[in-house]
Write a structure and sequence with these properties.
It comes from Guillardia theta (strain CCMP2712). One of its GO terms (cellular component) is cytoplasm. Keywords: Lyase, Pyridoxal phosphate. Its cofactor is pyridoxal 5'-phosphate. It holds the Pfam family Cys_Met_Meta_PP. This protein is an alpha/beta fold. It has 2 domains: about 190 residues, Aspartate Aminotransferase, domain 2 (3-Layer(aba) Sandwich); about 100 residues, Aspartate Aminotransferase, domain 1 (Alpha-Beta Complex). Helices cover about 40% and strands about 10% of the residues. It has a 7-stranded mixed β-sheet, with helices on both faces. Strands 8-9 form a two-stranded parallel ribbon. Strand 4, helix 5 and strand 5 form a beta-alpha-beta unit. Helix 1 runs parallel beside helix 9.
Amino acid sequence: MPIYQSSTFVQPSATEFQEYDYTRSGNPTRSALEKLVAGMEGAHAAFAFTSGMAALSCMTRLVKAGDEIICNADIYGGMYRLLTKVATRQGITVKFVQIWNLEEVKKAMTSKTKIVHIESPSNPLMMVTDIRALSKIVHERGALLTVDNTILTPLLMKPLELGADVVVHSATKFFGGHADVMSGFVCCKTEELSKQIYFHQNAEGTGLAPFDCWLVLRGIKTMAVRIERGMSNTVEVAKFLAAQPIVKKAVRYDLQMSQSKGAGVLLSFETGNVELSQRIVSALKIFKITVSFGGCSSVVEMPSVLSHASIPKDEQAGIPCKPPSRSR
């Protein structure tokens, strides 16, 4: 696919317009990427954004002032910041619930609940939600189920087929795959949702630039190989950690394997001791300390002080899924 590095396009006449006129509204390179990702997720349409957070932000445009969003208690720190510091200023009520406990979801939902948002597996605790069962609960109450599928990608799980209405990705991770481009996707199940997301993408100018689209297209070519090899390496690391007496908590993937083709490339573990976890992370040689993942390198972090640091420590302590000794 060529890189259409153009901001504007020549029109055939003073009264005729072709498909593309201005790159904010559409670009052939971006269209090629969006069509490919829509096919991968089984979506009506997909939309490419300048980052995963831009994609998540656009997703929140599906609700209005007075509406309510229920979100996983264990969630990426950037999404927590978006919901608590931005969405609430727009008159949207936000609740954080341990969504993997479906009874908690039933109790939390009200007539104002319009979106239930999850990560599965969640970040960083890797808690798994039964998406099929959750979708029935959410839809019975007239709300939308949105799923952040960044960790597994459509190669391992397709949430739309499990009952989700919208799927979001931070494509900076596995889609890009080389830690050299930022991007995100919103994938919609229906035409009506697609129209709403496109309107806001165009109105707010958050569409991904042509060259960045090309970089993501390049990354997709090796995505399957990278994830396959990454999972095999992760299994070996998990076996090693499981045999260590200092590892206090591991995660079971029985439910995950019932709704996906694999458990993914990420894992997390607890030692129960913050200082011990810090020493382990700092002593690693092959694994480099970064706040992100999904590239070609082996990386590690302590989310409580890096990727999830935007969640205040007193609030982290109040959420069972935010142990400070957790490493990812």
